[in-house]
């Protein structure tokens, strides 16, 4: 039977194996299996360097056996290797030490004593399983095993093992890499010679890429390193092409949208505001403002991302853009992620504008407007006034939470939407906006303090324009950060609390941040999205992350003479507000909190932040968090407490955070340590993504080339009528989860 891509696997592999593929990896068709590419390749005779292993990894290693012991689990007595067969039905632990030539790795097998007779010293074998830590020794527990120099082999097996490269697949205990390898071989052997290729023939030739059939052969059964490189290159291009085609199609749609041009006018509120500004704009701020003014003057909607560190002065930029739109007769909205932040923005803007925000009031400036606030917790009367002001146009600027979009809020003439602290602003949200502004789409400016590298922006946002503030306004206090290895150096932790006491003694305040609330609601922190899932796997799995309640209890003793209080997302709203107000008023010395404080808190008197179990947070998140201290004249201090031991990769991430305050550098490191799907914001649900080999961080050239090809295809054939295979790839990519990020931009 000939295999084509849509054929079911069970036609080739037998019902049981096919079933396992479907259950374990979600692969049902020939095409799906063939695009389950090897994660890496083992060159014949090469051992895996063990120092590249990380706790939590699903790893396949090639090692040589050094030592084997079998013990009874009941008596703990060692069993002579000549006796192990007799122990087949009893409880045993077989420990095997394997080496890569430099380091050792321990394997633990339960109730498989006969393995001791096979894994004799000197034997080379593949082992696969999860890397765990047991009493500070790196271990694979009950790994899958395949002895490489076994003699009792079928011919097919001998042939397979003679190949120069062994593909190692993303595998599980139920579906080991060897089984995947065998199945792929079967399917490949019956595969048609000509296959429909999503990459057009002409493009293949021009970009010097392998055709689909050849690439599949080479990616799974390479003969040389060049085979691997060529095949991967081809699939990377294919992935980039599909993605860029989607973006090109989307661009074509947005390019057709209309917006009211809001050219900058002289002699308005903006000029008045500029004259009163108590500081000079940084060069970056001035430049970015000019870019924005130019966008606003066009008849198509601006869609621009403004990125800049916490404290880089994004608010002034946004306010100038808003004033410019108000001067041109439109209204502007500022959306914040939380109510607290919305009220804070409202306060800041009102203060910065002074009498420019007092339209119709005694003492208001000649040309003035109103700044409205619309949040869920507003009283009915205040809400009605704010809605009226928005609808009548009396409020030139309206501040609110994102929920404002879903509300029945109407605007007289909405010209600009500024979205704070977010980089995603979805298609639906934009659609909601259009409904508020007739057939014209408002201009959109999205602000974020978590910078993203250029290639990611290009991929994730398509043609979203990006502006960046790279410098901080002068006069900011630097923040100093250190890692505190609490396990290795327990006295350092004591000193950290001592330091907290000293800061309070100087009249400053302190945050202590924990990854979890700890009030026994299951997975509470996950629900609040309070720490990066997946990262916790890399830290000691032995215990759950430390909680606010635990730490508060401990500090009640250690810092018994200080005013210690807690804050987290599940406190009632009034209580949260009350705690925050008291902290802001200096009535609390130490605030033990979850990441609720990440956004929306500005207490210049807070000088110090202690982050517990810091390894459980993402790099960018840590950077964001510490932006909460050192906001006033007081220099900031951030202590990253961890149980990790220096030397591990995860500890290295904390070191990176401690050693630089460059948000871009940290964002790059952060993204590099994540899986590609996460870079694009895909939930870690384990579902398949259409990006397998392409890295939006490393493959800039491929992405640029594919983008050009996609643009030229879409510009002449937007529906892809002449490219049926590409079209069907685009369609299935849109159905897969990866492209959820596209929906959100
Ligand atoms: P961001 O929103 O980017 O985190 P903000 O807009 O809140 O930063 O600005 C941080 C602080 O710096 C504010 O108090 C703001 O008034 C001040 N600021 C902004 N731009 C300048 C500047 N050019 N010179 C001096 N101070 C500035
Ligand atoms: Mg801000």
Topology:
Layout: H1 10-13, H2 15-25, H3 30-34, E1 40-43, E2 58-72, E3 78-79, E4 92-99, E5 104-110, H4 115-118, E6 124-134, E7 137-141, E8 144-147, H5 155-162, E9 165-168, H6 177-189, H7 201-206, H8 212-220, H9 225-255, H10 269-276, H11 283-296, E10 303-308, H12 314-327, E11 331-336, H13 339-353, E12 370-374, H14 380-392, E13 395-401, E14 414-419, H15 427-436, E15 443-448, H16 454-461, E16 465-469, E17 479-485, H17 490-505, E18 509-513, H18 524-528, H19 548-558, E19 564-567, H20 573-584, E20 590-593, E21 606-611, H21 619-626, E22 636-642, H22 649-659, H23 663-672, H24 676-679, H25 700-716, H26 724-735, H27 740-743
Parallel strand pairs: 5-7, 10-15, 10-16, 11-13, 11-14, 12-13, 14-15, 17-22, 18-20, 18-21, 19-20, 21-22
Antiparallel strand pairs: 1-9, 2-3, 2-4, 2-6, 4-5, 6-7, 6-8
Helix pairs in contact: 8-9, 9-25, 9-26, 10-12, 11-12
InterPro entries: DEAD/DEAH_box_helicase_dom, Helicase_ATP-bd, Helicase_C-like, NA-bd_OB-fold, P-loop_NTPase, RecG/Mfd, RecG_dom3_C, RecG_wedge
GO molecular function: ATP binding; DNA binding; DNA helicase activity; hydrolase activity
Protein name: Probable DNA 3'-5' helicase RecG
Short description:
This protein is of the alpha/beta class and 745 residues long.
Descriptors for this entry?
745 residues, alpha/beta, OB fold (Dihydrolipoamide Acetyltransferase, E2P), Rossmann fold, 38% helix, flat, disordered C terminus, binds adenosine-5'-diphosphate, binds magnesium ion, DEAD/DEAH_box_helicase_dom
